[in-house]
Amino acid sequence: MKQSCTSTFRRSAAVGAAVAIVAASSAFGIGATAAVAAPTETTTTTDAGTSANTPAPTMTDPAPVTDEPASPAATTTESAAPTATPAPATPTATESAAPTPASPTATASPAAEQAAPAASTPVTWAEPSSPSAPITFTVTAGQPFSHTFTAQGGDGPLEYLFNSLSFDPSNDPNGWSWNEQTGVLTAAPKSSVDGPVRFEVTATDLHQTAVQYVEITIEPAAAVAITTTVTSTADGFTPAWEVTEDAIRPWSHGDLGAPVSAVPAKPGQSLWFASALFDRFGNPLDGRESSSVTELTSSDPGDVLTWDSERRQWRVTFTDAGRHELTVGAEGLSRTIPVDVADTPLAFTEQSSADTPLGLTATSGTPFSHRFAVSGATGPVEYSLAGADGGDVIGDGDFFRSEFSIDPSTGVLSGTPSPATSYDFEVIARSGSETTTAHVTLTVEPGAAVGVLVTATNGAEGPVWEIGPDGTVLEYTEDGLGAVQTRTVARVPGNQDIPLFLQAIAVDANGNRTTTPDSPHPTVTSDVATDRVSWLADQDTVQVDFPHASIHTLTVSVDGESTSFQVDVQPLTAPAATTTDHPTAGSLAYTGADESGPLAWALGLLASGAGLLVWRLRRRHG
To answer: Could you tell me which of 581, 506, 514 has the C-alpha nearest to residue 545?
Structure first.
């Protein structure tokens, strides 16, 4: 039924085809008629070179009867009957070769009479309308609607095209449909929340059109339910509660909490009650933005009830502690709202203390969110963050402040952490003159492993190399003043006579260690078959010896992840100065260097986590 373009397209195509047929007829029929009708004219002609006073020669003998069309006699004034083959008359030898113009007294052919256009009848509507003054209808939700639109005039049957101006027909809750041949518009409307429905109805005979503008108002059905919102301020700020037939639920910034048995209040506090009536389709009887006029009573005669006609809400001030029953009524409906009036202090709903903080867990690289809520508030609540015990955040406070924040109105703590660590901090809630504190420990766990971080050293005093998950090699050295210098190199340098010692851990996308004490030890493979790889279990280290000088590619694997890098092994130039045995007690693990050596700090990078921090900073700022 809703094919407002289809029939018009078919009718337009038919009209186009008719025009093409008429054009073809004009080319073959009308042209032929004109050629046959030419003999009706007097064919007395004057040669171009003869004086105007010289009479033109005439034909006195009748034309012979043949199978060909007869040539018209020059002096004949009667119309010659057209033959089956409309060939033009052949001029005689005495006629001028120049074409003779048609006589102005020639009568029009029947075809010419049929081509004359007839007078048109305009398409009109009996009742005028405009976009600003449409034709209006009213229907009640749940009641069927039907109306037939009828226009007058036109040169043929009329069609009616419907264009919805206020809704998308593909997302129509009211089921509007129409018939383009009969002009009937129907619906079973249910929703009134989107306001009046507007249409353009176009009547057309495919040559002329007339538009009627229509507006249909859907009114709510009878009230069947009443819902009340209780707020702590006249402006509707939280804390607030939504009271329905099913439950009483705390409400905050569009989110409903778990049901509660009663609305909390304190002696001397005021609450505001705004109610709305709804029909069986969920349509508000007084509009989406307006409360309904209601009656309110209280079980406690000491309560002060005041009606605010401008805001359409009740203000109730409680004087005595205890359970109060507030009853809201309208349109024969009522709702009883229990209110517990007690001197309840402001407190977080999740208990915590400095000794037993609230424990929260986040994951590195994953968005985190947690809502803090309080009870006992007498007005709007403001949330803020503070360090543990009034000081700074315990942990990396700079990281915490750069990655986490709390919404002061909703109490939602959110952020996307990077370092795997823990933070101790406090959340402060304030309402009026009251303040309460939540003690929190947030633990950030590593994300999924994405690669392997490797530390490489040789068996003598010298640089330390860190190989990131992407294969980048960072070299650490110490200058003459003891300052640490770093630079990026293409390969780890090596020698035939000096072993390379490797330690490795799996890391996540932010460089956090994912390897645990239960993880299997790293494995190392080389693209040079003669390389000797040994696992030194007591040192948690892999030793690699290079019998041949060349560029070697080593691949280190941990927990299913791996990192590859190249070692530029130089040929043996002097007798080996160090042993290839693993280090003994009294020396740093996996190096053989004395613990008091100047590179002792560097050789412990991996174990201490400093290497992780350097790699993270390089990823962040490089």
So the answer is: 581
> In the CATH hierarchy, which fold is given to the domain comprising 223-341?
Immunoglobulin-like (2.60.40)
Contacts of 120 (CB under 8 A, 6+ apart): 155, 207, 208
> Strand, coil or helix: what is 6?
helix
Does domain 347-445 fall under CATH 1.10.260.40? My reply is no
pLDDT tens digits for range 264-299: 888 998 999 999 999 999 999 988 777 889 999 999
Calpha distance 152→487 (Å, rounded): 90
Q: Looking at 2-6, 128-132, 137-141, 227-231, which range is the least confident one?
A: 2-6
- The count of other CB atoms within 10 Å of the CB of residue 534 is 16
- Residue 619, classed as helix, strand or coil, is helix
Whole-prediction pTM:
0.52
pLDDT 10s digits, 105-132: 444 444 444 554 555 899 999 999 999 9
Beta-carbon count within 10 A of 43 CB: 23
Confidence (pLDDT) at 98: 45
Cβ pair 424, 394 in contact under 8 A: yes
Fold of 135-219: Immunoglobulin-like (2.60.40)
CATH topology assigned to domain 449-621: Immunoglobulin-like (2.60.40)
| Location of each CATH 2.60.40.1080 domain in the chain | 223-341, 449-621
621: left (phi over 0), alpha (psi -120 to 50) or beta: alpha
Residue among 491, 419, 502, 516 nearest 453 (CA) = 502
Of 127, 126, 183, 180, the residue nearest 153 (C-alpha): 126
Nearest to 476 by CA among 598, 620, 619, 607: 598
Contacts of 390 (CB under 8 A, 6+ apart): 426
Q: Token pair of 92, please?
A: 């005689």
CB 269 within 8 A of CB 318: yes
Is residue 346 within 8 Å of 434, Cβ to Cβ? yes
The token duo for 211 is 């538009």
**Which of 569, 574, 577, 573 has its CA nearest to residue 545?**
569
